[in-house]
Batch of 2 targets.
Target 1
Amino acid sequence: MTDDKTSPPQRSSAPANPSKPWGDYQIEVVVGYLLRYGVMLSGTIVFCGACIYMFRHAHEPADYRIFRGEPSDFRTIPGVFESARNGHGRGWIQFGLLFLVATPIARVAFAVVGFALERDRMYVAFTLIVLLVLLYSLIGSGLTF
Amino acid sequence: MTILTFTVAVGIVSFVAGLLGALTGLGGGVVLVPLLTIFFHVDIRYAIGASLVSVIATSSGAAAAYVKEGFSNIRIGMFLEIATTVGALLGAYLATWISTTAIAIVFGIMLLYSAYISRRVRPPELRHLPPDPLATRLQLNGSFPDLDGERSYNVQRVPAGFSLMFGAGALSGLLGIGSGAVKVLAMDQVMRIPFKVSTTTSNFMIGVTAAASAGVYLSRGYVDPGLSMPVMLGVLVGSLLGSRILVKAETKSLRLVFSLVILVLGLQMLYKGLWGRI
């Protein structure tokens, strides 16, 4: 798959050829596939939830005109897990959506590991900042409790 | 309207938005919120929540294809994500605080701007720019496979690009869109990153940026499973199909039609925000 990339691993700080280092590319390809499978899996979970939801509620009226906010079942991670475990269609959908939100977070986490393997301290720091902002968004917003 | 007809109709509209967004490279998210609010009478907060989730699906779904082409630059992406994620977090908190009419007006302006960007004639790319000391220190310069072999580039004006990215993140968090138009402006025009590199890097940044505001939207109850389900599935299938047929399709006239749609939706959002109820 990467026959053209036979050059040894190099860090992009080498001023002579600051091109994509071998390590970056390899990690990115693997992570790219993981993300695609993650999205497929989350789409499948959402679809399963959709089937249950449709089976039970297809003929009820749909109304999203007035914003009421979601009940706590769909607003916190434990609430979503509980709802999905009880076999609620919407709980499964929300679980699939949570899984989807996790895919870019996983991507950043993989990047931290990748840069650490390359011993690129500056980019370990940068990716850690991004990861912390993402985790803060999940925890600080009250999603986890 | 029953849940069945509503779900099928929203699913079809989202599918078309995802398909056209991928074919034209303009992104589907930007038309979803106005379509849901104007034609399906969905409260703009629910529409933003559903759109934001679908943006993550298109970004993560396309990542593998873009990475393999060797265009995207992970360092540029990760460095600029510091700005976009912090911006997105602030934008999402701002969205829970300002009025829905204000959001509609900002959305209308954003749509008009996107329509303008999509019709503008792109100035020729400047090549062989001298290396910028800050960009070199941050290891942002790189290269990508071009028609005539590997082509290297030097990134320019890092602080200005970083600041614009903060704004792009804030808009993404406020409106629940990928705000690709602002991202490409920052990378293309300000930082002088080659077009192929800036569009593909922007695509992977969009998912991470959206994830930063997703937590706020989920916990504030903006993400409704019944609405997000057809939006997410429709956009995902549409954009995956769109990126498959992209190579064969004639996109020029399609792009014109799509930017006209964006223009009309922008005017409607402005009208609704200024004189109507949203």
Note: Chain B has one domain: 3-274.
Target 2
Amino acid sequence: MNANEQAEVAERDAQRFRDVHEKIKREVQRFIVGQEPVLDAALTALFAGGHVMLEGVPGLGKTMLVKSIGQAVDVPFSRIQFTPDMMPADIQGTNVLVETEGGGHELQFQEGPLVSSLVLADEINRATPRTQSALLEAMQERQISVGRKTIKLQEPYCVMATQNPVEQEGTYPLPEAQLDRFLMKIVVGYPKIEEYEAIVDRTTAGQEPEISKVSSSAEILELRAVALAVPVPQRAKRYAISLVVGAQPGSEFAPALVNEFVALGPSPRAAQSLMLCSKVRALTEGRFAVSTDDVKAVAHDVLRHRVLVNFHAQADGVNADRVIAEVLSHVQPPVE
Amino acid sequence: MTVERRSSHRVRADLQELAAPVTAELEARRVRAATAAPNGLAAPLLAFPAIYFLLTCACWLFDVDSRLPWFALLPLTLILPLIRIFLRRASARAQRVRDVDALALLDAELQLADRLSAAHEFSGEEAPDGFMLAAMHDADQRVRAARGRLPADQARGPQRASPLWFAAAAASLLLYMAAQFTPAVGLSADVVDAGPVHAAVDVAPRDDRDDRDEVTRPEQRRPQPDPRVRRRAQQDPGESAPSEDESPTDARRRGRNPMGSGRSAEARTAAGGGSERGQPSNQAQSTKGGKARKPKEKKQDKPREDGDERAEEAKKPPQESGSTQGRGSGKGSSKSPTASPWSAKDEVVTDEEEDLEEDEEVDDESDESKARGGVQPNLRQRKPPVNRDLQISMGNGQPSDDANGRGGPGGPKKQRGVAQLVLGVTFPDHVSAKPNPGISKITQERIEPQAQQGDLISGEDRGERAASMGHMTRSPLSPWMQELVRSFYLSLREEGGPQ
């Protein structure tokens, strides 16, 4: 294949990526009104092969958004409503005693809801750390180990978790190791005032719009490969690394706010996540290479849950988003 | 519309061609910035004047003529900044702006999201993949649009030249002061304190300067008191001249005001330099004159001197007290546990100090009353504390001598309740007083009723209400409705219906 053909194939792949992305988005928007940045971020995580944490107050449509994505993409979908009394076996699966045809009994493994492709972990912070930790292996290794049995999870595998930031009583905040597994943490805000009318009409008319399946597991996997093939120029790469390092207290690029208020900065996994999300965004924006604008655009969602502020920051009302904004204004794209 | 795909070399050449003017512009800006940057020139500009000033001061101390002509000072002052500018300019010229950086600037200006810089980078790859080729092709389409559009010259604010101007002013001042400090001028430290204007007036001929130098060598001048005192003594020979080793304290006690500048260089040196030279402090020197005087005279002079001192202290801040400066330590410093070590070592209790301590004890009563502002009563006039002895008096009924009405043993008291079980604890039987008149008083007076005139009100129809009825919870019925209601109830009554 010569250079021209290679370029044409790449252009076709990029165009296909944009088309599928647009189709899924349009299909989900038949039910979900507004929340376009949230939907873009969730689809970015889906195409980048990561997991998403959706955080917002009740009633904003987090669960409905994930369910809609699961309906628009033809992938096995399961939902887990986390409760404090839930055990790891409840989500991973366990051996149960079943009766055989000959009248005997045997232990048979019954898969839990975690064995799926698109998993909605609703109110994940209500589960105990023990159950939350059961997700670690599934999210990172894409497999589940129960006893001597190891189950490879079906690709594309994506966990979309939700949590409520206000009702903290009786919840178990996710540890940093668990949070770091999520590619993005998306804050779901209130819809715009002009969107309320459409929300009321669509949800109280008695007929909910049906969401058709516009993509499949195989297509998602192919498009993931397309996204991974997007090249990253040196400048964008350095900028992403500078942002990650700049959010670490005491580092070379860290502004004063980071040194004062950040207890724990993002890990190298944050740089990987920045690159992956930037690649997907470059394709959706119609480009063939990552730019510093892409890195900047996904920085908040990627770094938000990886920046741990200290007590002084909480006392002064400085949150992770403020720290990231400061880092973005302080660290500029490298120019020699 | 399809655009012809060009090879990566062609794309790279076009990108370099596009970047060339931007690169040249950036390099020119960098050179200009290196030349015009004022912040880095302040230190070189100040370096020679500062060094020259220090050297001149040193030469003045050692009486060496170090004057340089002005036409030599100026080039020497400017040579370091010029060298600095030359080096920075050469460094800026040596730094080349990369094409990718120039294209990144173009990307930012044209909002191309790093397309040009990424394509330039990918064009240098040996084996670019499909996406890189696509990115180059994408950038190639925009090169034509971007060609010829240089980034607008970013509006820069005025360069801050204030540090440079300050440095130039400081350099000029240092040179001027250094010129004034040359031994040819022959100024003493007190004139330096007064400022260069006085120094210009006080220029003396060379012969006089030599004579004066013989008298006032630096090592001899240092322990001398305020030179203004000396100058004043020369002006007024009729007045008794102070002794050579007389401290400024003594001079001040004679009513001479050493002024705010009494804290001269010598005085400061005397205050802190005792330990440096390892000599006895000036405190001892100042007390020599005190020894010569008789204690009797001192006692006679003391009230007046104290009055003068207080008047002077009221005029001046306490830090500039001549006694503190001249004697090396304050009045209380020799007794203070935090006194400086050298003063503690050299502590010599003289007669004057002993007298002072005695005086303090004598004046304790009045001083104490003044210091406390009369808030507390004089301690020596206090009566003994009240006798609150409640011991059993065995009912002898004899009043105590110490009784003053504040309780304790007193006259006969009747005992009641539990207290009667304890002998001698007496209670008053009753308290003689008037009955409580109360908080209200009711009196009755006999007054005949009197008729009062009032306005008669006629019962005739006054017509409709003219003024507003104000806020009403319910709107009134219209007349026809009132009539309807009235007739309805009348008909009900006629029919014998419900009442």
Note: Residues 87 and 131 of chain A are 5 Å apart (CA to CA).
